[in-house]
Model the fold of this input.
Amino acid sequence: MSKTKLIFALDVSSKQEALELIDELRDEVGAFKIGLQLFTSEGASFVGQLVESGLRLFLDVKFHDIPNTVAAAAVEVAKLGVWMFNIHAAGGPEMMKRTVGDVNSYCAKAGAPVPKILAVTVLTSIDGNMLKAAGVALEPRDLVVKYAMSASSCGLDGVIASPLETGMIRERLDGKEFLIVTPGVRPAFATNDDQKRVTTPKSAVMGGADFIVVGRPIRMAEDRADAARRIAREMTELSNSI
Ligand code: C5P
Done:
């Protein structure tokens, strides 16, 4: 079912708003994403409650610190039972490997499910000039691919990448299994909001995305469940047409 590929971003500040959205959408999407806003306002115990209620959660916390600190925080995330979370590839190979190793050892010991660990590559808000100013000679898309390869060799399960980089990453992976989660997806019925590099659900999946993250086009719709169904349908039309 294509709706399992759809991750809805719970970009709200309170438990109450989040629960209302979950009620409306739990049968229409494959997973919910909790980002820094809701995580900061409602905390880890709320995440734990949602997991216990049977929700599949992507905790979008983008950890970036020294290896010891990130790995320790990642083990705490694993204790919550989330389906997926992320760390910055810019933290370096040692940070990524240590995180994967410590999470796997904890889950093996505790008999807990192993969360998928994704790498954040280059944020879409960062452009070539910003990289140059920081002394990085690469174009953003080349750095994204470089980070994706590094994440793959460090044992991570996948990356977050914009629609522009998905194809290049798939090419370089040469068939290796690796998840690509793509935000910045805009169906035909929605506006682009502040997303600069956008794509449709159909072209995101055709370009190699395993999951798409959608927030405002669903949250701001008059009928949210219907908006989610329309987005899922776009992906279904794709699989039927292959
Ligand atoms: O509302 P919208 O569909 O633009 O939401 C996209 C979600 O994906 C937001 O939660 C945003 O933080 C996240 N995201 C993004 N671009 C990235 C990484 C994450 O839009 N490069």
Remarks:
- The pocket of cytidine-5'-monophosphate is lined by residues 9, 11, 35, 123-124, 160, 183-184, 193, 195, 213-217 (CB under 6 Å).
- Strands lie at 6-9, 31-34, 57-63, 84-88, 116-120, 158-160, 179-182, 211-214.
- The chain has a mean pLDDT of 94.
